[in-house]
Specification:
The protein folds into 2 domains: 133 residues, Aspartate Aminotransferase, domain 1; 235 residues, Aspartate Aminotransferase, domain 2 (3-Layer(aba) Sandwich), CATH 3.40.640. The termini are far apart. Strand 7, helix 8 and strand 8 form a beta-alpha-beta unit. By secondary structure, the chain is an alpha/beta fold. It is globular. 47% of the residues lie in helices and 14% in strands. The chain has a 7-stranded mixed beta sheet, sandwiched between helices. A two-stranded parallel ribbon has the order 1-12. It contains 16 helices and 13 strands. Bound molecules: pyridoxal-5'-phosphate. The site of pyridoxal-5'-phosphate (PLP) has 13 residues, from helix 5.
Length: 398
């Protein structure tokens, strides 16, 4: 029976990652995978996380399961990170959460809850969005519609078109929004635009589902949550998927949380009970290590302070690279790449055609997706000139 199953193609992004890894050209520039890399091309462990890990390992006396809802310090830390330490919503018990295996687990548990509340409901996703949203959300039985979001002509959000499309969202439907550092475009909403979305959600009665996988990688931990907090101030209900993969560098430890904002404290508790049942169906118990580390960093003032400092360094490097790329690519090609400096987080589209991207890979060992999405953090002092020369070459050839 099992022999009927055909071999499936690799995930397009992971396929390119493997292709890049197999290329031994010393001039190679790999901008494919969405992990933060330092100046040496390494994905570092934060010192704050290392210290938490030393403490954890020294004190650990059991590998028994965590509670199904996850680690208490972690859940509290994530809620405070999202809503602010002094949030009245937290004090009123209107927020609850469950620890999940990464942000992907959080998106999936969030989708399970939305499906339980209204089976077959419609989720509106940005065009484009992170492709993994489709299997994560679609596999529970929810339907999709797209709203226009990124305008390749302006390299920014086409907010007029977004609003036009969201006027079609019916009461009770879901709108999936990227909390900050939009993946793949890097084009984020302004606070004034978040406010328009809040007006629409209020008057049309739709429910935001916010995926926030890059809090702290754009303008700052507080700044990057400002849109989410604005919606939370004004709306009765919201589902949030949070990830610690990037901002705490815990990728392989699979650390995230599905977070629920509810009208009343008892709804918030009801949703956690639903989320525990949903988790039981797919993976049962959450992984411990990453959440215990994150919980320790978020609840120990010295470690929190160290992490804030390190994260500020990551942000400064990304934003510095954005400036350097805008200038270097602009000078090499005589084109305007200033949009890279305006965008946020790890990703931007270079605005090249799929054929140009294929030539960059085949002829220059410069690896980026066919959509021309690059991971800005993959750029460094040693490869930026190769990148600019290669981009200039393919631009010249048309
Ligand atoms: C938009 C978005 N959401 C969620 C995630 C979740 O990632 P993870 O499951 O590794 O925490 C990612 C990671 O790339 C992402 O880009």
């Amino acid at each position: 029976m099992l022999d009927q199953l055909q071999r499936l193609p690799d995930d397009p992004i992971l396929g390119l990652v493997a292709q890049a890894a197999a290329d031994h050209n010393p001039q190679k520039v790999d901008l494919t995978i969405g992990i933060y890399m330092d100046e040496n091309g390494l994905c570092p462990v934060f010192d704050a996380v290392q210290r938490a890990q030393q403490q954890l390992v020294a004190a650990e006396s059991t590998k028994a399961y965590l509670p199904a809802v996850g680690d208490a310090a972690f859940n509290q830390g994530i809620q405070q990170l999202l809503f602010g330490e002094d949030s009245a919503l937290l004090a009123d018990g209107r927020v609850s959460s469950i620890q999940t295996p990464g942000g992907c687990g959080a998106v999936r548990i969030g989708a399970e809850i939305l499906q339980a509340a209204k089976p077959g409901n419609r989720v509106w996703i940005s065009d484009p969005t992170w492709p993994v949203h489709i299997p994560l959300v679609g596999s529970v039985g929810l339907q999709f519609s797209k709203y226009r979001y990124y305008d390749p002509a302006t390299h920014g959000v086409n907010f007029e078109a977004m609003v036009e499309d969201l006027k079609g969202v019916a009461r009770g439907e879901i709108v999936l929004l990227h909390g900050c550092c939009h993946n793949p475009s890097g084009a984020d909403l302004t606070l004034a635009q978040w406010s328009v979305i809040a007006d629409m959600a209020e008057s049309q009665g739709f429910i935001p589902f916010i995926d926030i996988a890059y809090q702290g990688m754009g303008d700052g931990l507080e700044e990057d949550a400002a849109g989410l907090r604005l919606l939370a101030q004004r709306l009765p209900e919201m589902v949030i998927a949070a990830s610690c993969s990037k901002n705490l560098g815990l990728y392989r430890e699979r650390t995230g949380a599905a977070v629920f904002l509810c009208q009343h404290a008892d709804n918030a508790q009801a949703l956690v009970s639903q989320a525990k049942v949903a988790a039981r169906k797919v993976y049962s118990m959450p992984p411990a290590h990453g959440a215990l580390l994150a919980g320790k960093v978020l609840s120990t003032p010295e470690l929190t302070a160290l992490w804030h400092e390190e994260l500020a360094g990551v942000r400064a490097r990304i934003n510095g690279l954005r400036g350097a790329l805008s200038e270097t690519l602009g000078a090499a090609t005589n084109r305007d790449f200033s949009f890279i400096q305006r965008e946020k987080g790890m990703f931007s589209f270079l605005g090249l055609s799929p054929e140009q991207c294929q030539r960059l890979r085949a002829e220059h060992s410069v690896y980026l997706l066919d959509s021309s999405r690059i991971n800005v953090a993959g750029v460094n002092g040693a490869n930026i000139d190769n990148l600019a020369t290669a981009v200039a070459q393919v631009c010249k050839e048309g």
